[in-house]
Every structure is written in structure tokens, then in C-alpha cells.
Amino acid sequence: MKDLRSDLCTKRLYFDGGFGTVLQGMGLKSGEAPETWNITHPDEVTGVHRAYIEAGSNIITTNTFGVNRDKYENYAELISAALDCAENAVGGSEAYIALDIGPTGRMLEPLGDLSFEEAVSIFASNVRAAADRADLIIIETMNDCLETKAAVIAAKENSSLPIFVTNVYDRSGKLMTGADPAAMTAMLEGLGVDATGMNCSFGPDVMLEIIDRFTESSPLPLIANPNAGLPLVEDGKTVYDISAEEFADYMVRLAEKGVTVLGGCCGTTPEYIAATVRKTSSIPFRAPVEKNKTVVSSYTHAVEVADSPILIGERINPTGKPKLKEALRSGDFNYILNEGVRQSEAGAHILDVNVGLPEIDEAETMKKAVSALQAVTDTPLQLDSSSPAVLERAMRIYNGKALINSVNGEEESMNSVFPLVKKYGGTVIALTMDKSGIPESAEARLEIAERIARRAAEYGIKKKDILVDPLCLTVSSDSRSALVTLHALRLLRERGFKTSLGVSNISFGLPEREKINTAFFACALENVRWNGGNGVGATLKRPLAKLTIQNTTPFITGDKKVSVTYRNVPTRYDVLTGTASAPVEIRFTFPTTTTGSAAVGEDFLFVPTAGKSVSLSIT
Fold this sequence. Notes:
By secondary structure, this protein is of the alpha/beta class. It is built from 19 helices and 27 strands. The strands form 7 sheets. The protein has an 8-stranded parallel beta sheet with strand order 1-10-7-6-5-4-3-2.
């Protein structure tokens, strides 16, 4: 009994190679669509499949790369005929049949005229036409992050087959629309694909230059299906500059770096696959390793919640913001876009997007806001709503892996939010509250966090994709609230949770809010990052704000007093982003010989080291 998902985790697998290349040698004319041969020359198509199986391929791809309903009225007939050819070739062998899905050939909005939902519908038609006659779906040669997502969602919504995805990267390691391997890995892992990697574009020599960026970020099995080098024209014929033996030598090096699914693309033939199988079959198989990275991503890059704090800009939230409320009521998205760009330029790593007003269509407004923001900034977004329906509208069309705000310990909340995270991917903020409210003790908040994590695991959502917010309440109503939150942060760190915290909540209703926020911010960092010497990631939610500093600001962290001295500071200076109204240089000196400096405009963060006094001077 064949079991692809089991084989994927236990042995090296081999795709076939180029299809059009081989058919050209059989008489396919210039300009003739190779997919039409499924009907007009089925014996030849079947023969190509058999040749690859005999060469050692245990995954063959259907001759359907360019088929979709936009291009062919008889797309379903072409897909059915392609599957007939593949099934006839496989016979009683152990080879798997992959339904091959290529790009639509059109650009998605806002770069083109194809809507996201229309793209999903086009891909879904192909999946349904295959009627689960294939063993897996290979989505290949995609050069756009959002189109890739549309194809994956179509596959998930219309089939239970394993899903493999390969994208086309340039020599800098980016897709045509800007995504790097870490961004694609974050999104595709979140969507639940079974394997990911690269195909086409260039040969295995260039793939070797990029593959380390995949192995560093991806816990999924990796695929490499390169071309036979670069195409050349000799005597009126297209040839490639890497021979079968040279190709196989490069594939050995890719296998040694951890690639577990090998094959070919343009210019490769059964000879190339046979050489690759012969030279790599004895290399020990290395199963993929869980990276345990907490990441969110946009359509260009990923942001990892690790040792350094991540700042979430929260200006796009109507609570207490009359101008934003009016902009939402009037549909003035320019105001929203300006807020987003301004926060990104000021150093926010993630932008919160909340458009909740009772008098507007929140779901439609959220969808428009997310699309519009992603058209002007590549900063990852936090999708913020108490409505699961609103979250789903935004998560579906979000270009990347979003941060989701939020879930809590109530069953209704978990049952509503976790299925969305499972389907669309995402890192979710978990609030330590339930139907009884916010617990008064740190231990009770930890218990809620652990309950949420257990429930998430039932949906297949990993602990790394949860950021726990232990909730800080204003000290104006409860003088102990800050201490309880700090204690909860420490307990969560000890249990291996990554955390998120709305720092500015602590000073609500008080004067000199930024001074209070700064002191609490440093205390929070002390508890999640430096105690015990083990770094655990944290995100800090705060509105974009400037800090006016007049003199020394002392604060207490545990039993250590840390004094920060600011001298000759410009009137408007943001200590978190290094933004000032005039050029200054930031210097910091530890009591030891450790020194450092950062220019204005660079990310700069003052973090006290446990057990040491630190003096920070700005001159």
C-alpha cells in the first residue's frame, strides 16, 4: 500500500524531469502546446512517463502544467486524458502521480486584473477535474506569493491530497514579486503544505547558492527541481549548458545539504534523472528538523519573534482616535494608509489593523484595508477583530502569514479561531482570560495559556505559533497589576511560551504616560528576556509616539536598580526607534569593556543586562 506522506518522511524521492523538452524530440512543433498531446498523441505522452519511471522517478507529473479554464475550453478533457496517460504508465509500479498545476499566466490584483477569488476558482476547477485520480498535487513554477496561496487554498478546499509547492527564485533568492525563502516557508508551512522548494529558473549550481536559506528556515521536506543549466541555441535547436553527469554531481551536493526530493525541470531528460538517482541513492536520508521558529510574514519577508523584541504599531485602531473613526465612516483609506506607512517608517515591525466600528461593514472594510495596506507597505500585519467572520475575510486574502489578534480561553473563542488558523495559517495572540474574566494571579493566567495551547494542539497548531498576552491592566485602578503581569511573563518564559504585551495599557488614565511606559517596558524585557540568561521572544504593542525626556529616569527591576541618563536630547526623540528631530549619535557603555553605538534611524533598543548598572548617554 503506497503512503506518500510516510515515504516523504523516511526516504528520498525523485520527481521526473522536463516534459516539453522530451516531446520536442518526438516531434512537438514550435508553438504547439504540449498539453494537446494528451489527446492527439497519448502513446507518446505515456512513453515519456514510462521513460522517467524506468530512470528511477517515483513521482511523475501529469502533462497539465499549462492547462486551465482560461486557456482551454476543454481543460477538463485535457486533464482527464493526462491522467489516463499517467495511470497507463504507472501500471503496477510504486510510482506516484502528481497533478501538475502551473500559474494562470495573469497577475493578481493589485499588480494585475485577476482577483484573488477568481484565481482560487480557476485552480479549483483543475483540482475538481482530476477527481482525486492523482496521488498528490504539485503547484509549481509560481513567481508570486499571493497566487501561490490561491492555488494552495483551492487544493485544500477541493481535495485531501498531499500538496507540494515549488517557486521560481532569481539569483538573489527572491520571487518576481519580492518574497524570499523565509517568507514563503512561513506562509506555506502555515497553510499546511507537505513539501516546498524551488524549480525552474536556473540550474542546480545556482540553487546551491540559495538552498541554505531554505534549510535554515524550513521544517518541511525540501524539493529541488532545477533546469539543466542555461538554454543556448545551437544549429537552430535549444540546448542546455549542464550535462547529465554534471547535473547529477550538483544534485549530490543538494542532497548532502538536506534536500530530500530531487528532480528536474527545463532541459532535463530521463538521462538526467537516471544519473541523479545513481549518484544520490547512497547518500543517507536526513529527515527534516523542526525549527521551532515563531514567525509572521508579509509578501516579501518574515519577522521572527526571537531574542530581540518586536514592536507592533497600533495606530490603526479606532479606540480613542476620532480622526480614524471618521476616516473609517467616510471610507477615507488614504488616512489609514498614511498611518501604516508612518508607523513602518518609524520602525514598527508589525502593524495592527483594527477597523471595528458598529456602524460600518467591518468585514468588507477589513478586507479593503488589508489589501490597500499591502499595496503600499511590506510590513507584516496583525489582523485584529473580535469577530471570527471578519478575521476569516482578512486571513483569506492576506499575502503572507499574519499575526492574528486574538483567541482566549473560552471554548467559543477557541472553537471559532483555531479552525481559521489551521486553514489559512497564522501566529495567534492568546489572551489569558476566559468567561470568568482576567485572573488576579499570575499562576491562573499561566493555566489559561496552557489550556489554550493544549486546545490548539488538537487542531494541529503548534506551540510556536502562539504568542501569549498575560494582559496588563492600568496601575491607576490596581497598584499590583504591573507586578502580576511581570510575574506572569516570567512564568510563561519558564514554560517555553513566546509572549506579547500591550505595554501602553499600564499607564492608561495617568499623566506622563510615556515615562511610565518606558519604565514598564524595560521591566517587561527583564522578565521575558534576561532573567536566567535564556532569551525568549516577545512582541510589544505600543502606539507610535515620541518621548520627551528631561532628566534621569530611574526604575526598579527585581532587586536591581538601573539608572538611565539622557543628556542633550532633542525635544522630540523616540528611544525605541532612534528617531529624532535633529541628527544625534547614540552611545551606550556597559561597566565592562563592552561598548557600542548606533546612528539615528537605525533600530536601537536600550536593554539592561541582569546584574549590571548601565549608563546611556546621548550626545
